[in-house]
Amino acid sequence: MDEGIIFRMSAYSEQGGRKYMEDVVDIRIEYEPTQSPSPGEDYPKSQGHGGQGKVESEPTKQTENETRDHNVAAEAAPVSAMWVESLSNEDSGNNSAPASEGKVAGQAVDTRRSVAFFAVFDGHGGREAAHFARENLWELLKRQRGFWSKDHSEVCAALKKGFIACHHAMWKELPEWPKTITGLPSTSGTTASVIVIRGVHMYVAHVGDSAVVVGVQENDSDIRLQALEITQDHKPELPKEKQRIERLGGSVMKKSGVNRVVWKRPRLTHNGPVRRSTVIDQIPFLAVARSLGDLWSYDFYSGEFVVSPEPDTTVMTLDPSRHRYIILGSDGLWNMMPPSNVVNMCCSHDKMVGPKGMSCARRLGVTALLFWKERMLRADNTTVIVLALQVRGDPPIPMHQEEIVVDMSTGMDHVPFPGTTYNTCQVPQRIVAANASTFGLYEAAFCATAHLLPDEQCELPLMARPLPLMGGSRVSAMRRRTSLDDGSEENPAQGDTD
């Protein structure tokens, strides 16, 4: 069995000033099954998820989460909740040795091996698609044939099938999603950048313009880290994407200097069936060529979606001695900070800040927001997940209270560094209610229960003026966006712009 990695994790999300878009994250750490499901057999569903349920309202979800937190030790909870329980036992002084084997949803699990799932969803045209993906994508991925295979190509194929299954499941939910003000079906969609870590292997699946970047240090003497961009933005102007769109009968047009996928629809004043004589409006609508949702892009002639849900996939073998950081972020981060600046800020932050100040993810997110404000632009949604890889056997870096440490090789009941503070505290309801419109408190939840944001850290800290930006392809291009959003039209969920 491959020796798993150890990493520190932190997450941060701020919704900015974009009213009809919402960033959400999903973080799961679970046991791998002892053996893959047999051909034709689905992976067992975890409690509270299923790949076909409706997106729950926030008050209902919070109530269920609170109940699950208090009863996690008494029920056969998902494995991710079992890990939260082990952390609670550690805090209470219960040092009993963890069981070497357990049962989860009727399946034997190996407590010496874990799988980690991290995802950033940047929604547009409404919150429904992003929330649906957060609630269902992971379960759908696990149930695909080949997902638990040791063959990398089979795992990547399963990731693609899982994305498409999630997309088709959204189609079934579309009648339940809020319509636009003109009565048209919802235009909600979301980017999705996902990584799955098993052993020393990282699998990446990606649609849209959120990104995954790895900070690489080739030699110990290197002062600056190199930024390795694992994903490429799915922009409509890319030759491959434009050819695919046009092959399906779609088109790409510019609006205010930004290339967008065109939404072809009958004029709003049209009544009755669509005929050849029907006037069709062509609206430059979406600034990404691939996403989950955006069901308006279905082409009835080809039977395919012009905005494709099929992800790019890749696999990477992680070496903690070289690969120092893994950063997932929405374009609210990357539009303001080039990847090279991001990975080196993580490095300098760990060297100078230590356990004081703020977590690395919060540092990146707040800095990006300050850059938006400095340029007098309306801040985009900004979400960041940072994984700081640690070499096994090296002394641990002092940990901030917003961070947790995970050892993938020994399972979730193992504490990698005894005496280190672990934090899985809940965000109080009063804080959520008071800050819901201003601060997007992230939901980095293990089994959608444990939040990583302490009570005393619910406000944005004061920071000095940020350093000037260095040149970079992402920032220098800036996609010529000023007040433009990163997805659909300004008010797609509530109205239509001709």
UniProtKB/TrEMBL annotation:
User: Does the keyword Transmembrane belong to this entry?
Assistant: no
**Which InterPro entries did the record assign?**
PP2C (IPR015655), PP2C_BS (IPR000222), PPM-type-like_dom_sf (IPR036457), PPM-type_phosphatase-like_dom (IPR001932)
Q: Tell me which family the UniProt entry assigns to this protein.
A: Belongs to the PP2C family.
The protein depicted here goes by the name PPM-type phosphatase domain-containing protein
Return the Polar residues bias intervals.
86-98
Keywords linked to the UniProt accession: Hydrolase, Metal-binding, Protein phosphatase
GO MF terms listed in the record are: metal ion binding; protein serine/threonine phosphatase activity
Q: Where is this region: Disordered?
A: 29-74, 86-105
Using the record's annotation, list all stretches that form the PPM-type phosphatase domain: 91-389
**Keyword Lipid metabolism listed:** no
Compositional bias ranges of the Basic and acidic residues kind: 55-72
